[in-house]
Design a protein that fits this description.
263 residues; mainly alpha; two-stranded antiparallel sheet
Length: 263
């Protein structure tokens, strides 16, 4: 199940992946804009905390992670990619800790993706022992399903208890203490299983076994966004916060005098 020769005519790009990744990051930016408005600038958006918005948030986050898994099949150095991604996540942690203490991100998407890429690099040969990718996708999907509530102390129908003094060191694995808080939190369990499902699906992609539209470009601007997701992820929150700060403090200062917008 090794790498096959990619299409030369595409310049080694699978455009639909770039486009889906671009759309996912755009929707994430919109979500974070609404998040900042609600939790930092006290704008009341009634629908923001609804079940449908939370579900859509997880779907698009999962899609982004899934595509990151696919991309591992195309990379010649997943170790380097993983280290850069994880160090970027640590940078986000430091910035939020020193400048936005109450909004500190301890283990967000970049941390999880970085470690997932590193683990994939270390265990690629072992993962490839599953010769039929569909089996890998199904196994990863089942593991995600049974571990999705691990932060609540549940794995499938099994409930477990771990003392808080131990839990405080296990947050990267989805086991959190009662006082743990991270504004962006994507633990390895269960999200690494979404990543692995993408890795196995990537076999079909790299072997050109998907429909032709998957390899054609449909939107150049969105594909461009999809090729620069790391920089967008790192920079969008400081930019959003800066713009909103200027708007609420200098353009609409009356909002800070007790008035609240309702959307």
């Amino acid at each position: 199940m090794g790498r096959r020769k990619r299409r030369k005519s595409l310049g080694n790009r699978v455009w639909f992946i770039d486009e889906v990744r671009g759309m996912a990051i755009i929707l994430m930016v919109v979500y974070h804009l609404c998040f900042d408005l609600v939790y930092i600038f006290n704008v009341k958006i009634e629908i923001f905390d609804s079940a449908i918005i939370n579900f859509m948030r997880d779907v698009f986050a999962g899609l982004f992670i899934f595509i990151s898994g696919i991309s591992c099949r195309f990379s010649s150095n997943n170790l380097k990619r993983g280290i850069i991604c994880f160090l970027s996540g640590l940078g986000v942690t430091l910035v939020t800790f020193f400048f936005m203490r109450h909004e500190t991100i301890y283990f967000g998407a970049l941390h999880m993706l970085g470690i997932s890429m590193i683990l994939y690099n270390c265990f690629e040969k072992l993962l490839n022992k599953i010769k039929f990718p569909i089996f890998g996708i199904v196994i990863a999907g089942l593991l995600f399903y049974f571990t999705r509530e691990i932060s609540r102390g549940k794995i499938g129908i099994w409930t477990f208890y771990i003392d808080d003094s131990i839990k405080k060191w296990l947050f990267p694995f989805g086991i959190v203490s009662s006082d743990f808080h991270s504004w962006d939190y994507f633990p390895l369990i269960p999200w690494i299983f979404v990543f692995l499902a993408g890795c196995y699906f990537g076999v079909y992609v790299i072997e050109n076994r998907l429909p032709e539209f998957f390899y054609n470009m449909h939107s150049r601007p969105i594909a461009f966004v999809g090729r620069h997701t790391l920089w967008i992820y790192l920079l969008h929150q400081p930019i959003l916060y800066g713009l909103l700060y200027v708007i609420f403090n200098y353009i609409c200062p009356y909002v800070l005098n007790g008035r609240v917008f309702v959307v």
